Amino acid sequence: EAGVAQSPRYKIIEKRQSVAFWCNPISGHATLYWYQQILGQGPKLLIQFQNNGVVDDSQLPKDRFSAERLKGVDSTLKIQPAKLEDSAVYLCASSLVSGTSGRGGNEQFFGPGTRLTVL
Amino acid sequence: SQQGEEDPQALSIQEGENATMNCSYKTSINNLQWYRQNSGRGLVHLILIRSNEREKHSGRLRVTLDTSKKSSSLLITASRAADTASYFCATAYGGATNKLIFGTGTLLAVQP
Fold it and tell me: Which residues on B lie below 8 Å from A110 (Cβ)?
């Protein structure tokens, strides 16, 4: 079974520039997540999609971050303009279901991440 | 913050020894999950324990959950050098969204 795919793996930009990350979840997974992981910390959820609808974006800095999941499959996360504090690894994850009624709960499968450095 | 906290922050043991990590959290949960992260394989789900369960096993892993104390522990028995990684607990909150909140992690180093 193919895992969660992300690209690019690394990105270096200067502050105030824009950047976009792409994610393709595991086939059949309805729920897709974007996390930000700053060095030395655990991942922090930015946005959660169920199919092509947003179910939680409470921690997404909406003045500069945006995300979409057209057609309920792959997704893009954009930062515009980037700040120095956006330097982090951006992780995409997917799961079969988000609710507790699903078989196996909602264990998430993570992609390799994109390491963003903002200079 | 709803983030869980792991204890200890770092742990160094010899191969063959057991490793125990603890996680505390703040509010009621649907389930609690443990994940491992290393440079080779990224972030990988290890085990999930539901709020109505007290103990769960998977291979060399044993997880306990005490909802009255809002705490969980992960025991890795007969550790191997390949177990060297950061371990995170993640608590699932909410109804339909089942949002995951990750802890700060325990860095485990297993010396050969």
Answer: 42-44
